[in-house]
Amino acid sequence: MELKAFEVAKLIDGVVDGDNNSTINKLSKIESGDKNSLSFLGNSKYNDFLYKSSASIVIVKKSFELKEPVKPTLIRVEDPNLAFSVLLEYFNNQQISKTGIDKDSSLGENVNYGNDVYIGKFSIIESNVNIGQNVKIHPHVHVADNVTVGDNCIIYPGVKIYRNTVLGKNCIIHSGTVIGSDGFGFNKDSNGNNLKVIHNGNVIIEDDVEIGSNCTIDRATLGSTILRSGVKIDNLVQIAHNVIVGNNTCIAAQVGIAGSTTIGKDCLIGGQAGIAGHLKIGDRVQMQAKSGVLKNIDDDSVIMGYPAISYRDYNKSYVHFKNLPKIMNFINKLMKKSNEQ
Question: How far is residue 229's CA from residue 252's CA, in Å, rounded to a whole number?
């Protein structure tokens, strides 16, 4: 795919400063741009790279003043970072705009799908599945019975979606993720054996949710495990049965959330945090990395540590903790002196 400078400027509402017909076919970092690439200058500490760059086009701020002539054509915009994000999305959409159903895929009975759908090689779509408009299902995906996939979803290779799952519109599911597998539940019988609790619920994923690679989202025992609109999940996250995650909450890598916990909206959950089951986490909670949450958390809390406490209290406590050897040495000296008297 090739774009000329005037076409790029139109996409990002910019003004060309240089050759209108300068052509690019790829994106690059400012420090490594070469011919036919487009880069951007969004941080002043990288300014010097502009004067050495061989990129064909560089996006800069409208107010940027050159110290000396440059090789690239410049496109001046209000916000170079935002403009480059628009181009990243544009290039990505061009690369994933495949359509058609591969002859080596398999569709069961009563599969309904909209226009501009793509179903890749060796993907399996079982019976009674409803697939919306412009959905992209890449190779080696398994979609089980009675699943609904909303418009404009992208499902990358190797994703497994169990029965009765509901995906809203504009969702992105990355490779290796499993949605709708059994929850982890067992009861002891009279002999002490573990009896499996059957999970008959499902998973509901609302609009505009993105789930990273190799995540696992368990279906509910009864009812639904729910990810509300706008939720963003990093790689390697485990969400257990009957969990509800509120709108626009972001969850970093390697987080584990135990069953039947409800998490509010607009929360930020740091990497490797662990959240116990049957808890209520409020809205706008900020949970630092590696936190261990064992009790309910109020709205707007900032927490850290294991077990998690107020972020401010944790930092105060850490000052004493790191000085504990000195403190104990001082106490031992006082005790020894006391014993000698």
Answer: 17
Q: What is the DSSP letter of 31?
A: T
Nearest alpha-carbon partner for 61 in 117, 3, 15, 114: 15
Could you give the C-alpha distances from 207 to 129, 150, 159, 166, 192, in angstroms and in order? 18, 8, 18, 10, 43
Among positive and negative, which fits the CA dihedral 79, 82, 87, 90? negative
Active-site positions read: 241
pTM: predicted TM-score of the whole model, two decimal places: 0.80
Contact between residue 170 and residue 207 where contact means Cβ atoms under 8 Å apart: yes
- Report which residue type is found at 340: E
273 belongs to a structural domain = yes
Per the structure block, which two tokens stand in for 174?
A: 């990355």
Inter-residue contact 56 to 38 (CB < 8 Å):
yes
The string of pLDDT tens digits covering residues 136-188 is 999 999 999 999 999 999 999 999 999 999 999 999 999 999 999 999 999 99
Domain check: are 281 and 163 in the same one?
yes
Length of the chain in residues, anyone?
341
Domain of residue 36, residue span: 3-95
Q: Which residues pair with 113 in a beta bridge?
A: 131
CA 268 to each of CA 54, 91, 185: distance values in angstroms, whole numbers, following the listed order: 40, 29, 28
Contact yes or no for 217/239 (Cβ under 8 A): yes
